[in-house]
Specification:
Length: 200
Amino acid sequence: MNNLSCGSSRIAGCRFSVYPMSDHFAEIILGALKQVNTEKVWIQTDDLCTCVRGKAEHVFDVTRAIFAFTAATGVHTVFNGTFSIGCPGDSQGDVHMSEDERKLNADIGLSGDIETAGHFSLYPLGINHYMDVIYQEIERAKQKGTLTQGIHYSSRLDGTLSELFETLEDAFLNALETEQGHLVMTAVISANSPSPKKIP
């Protein structure tokens, strides 16, 4: 039996899928991937989703760029991802932990201004005061102006694509500074939706 504990690895990761609502979804996704520089992350795609791993800043850099370039086509696009750090037993991809902090996909052009809506949920695992950490990041998102309401099992965000991913990255990294254990965050983001926003 493995003797593993949360927080033993500082490798961050995200397992995600991007869904362009188009008959040409494969071409759209592959076209977006060609525009994204993934040199600083470990990346693997199977028939269900894509997994990106490495330093947290590069994981967010790559996932944001993939979603941005997919949404830039103008079709309704949804990103559904689970971010994690401190997972017991995480070992592959360590080679990318020596990368510097310069993001290779910082410039996403006008894609960053696309209006988006999203839900996110934060899960600090293995601590008794997890709600304090969650409320702290909800308040931080509120101060940024991207938090629009609390909903069942999640919090709603609205703003530009860049604003939402900045909120997600800040929430993840700030929660990590508070607790150095196993942290999980789920996020669903939608762009170019034909449905009107419904915010009470």
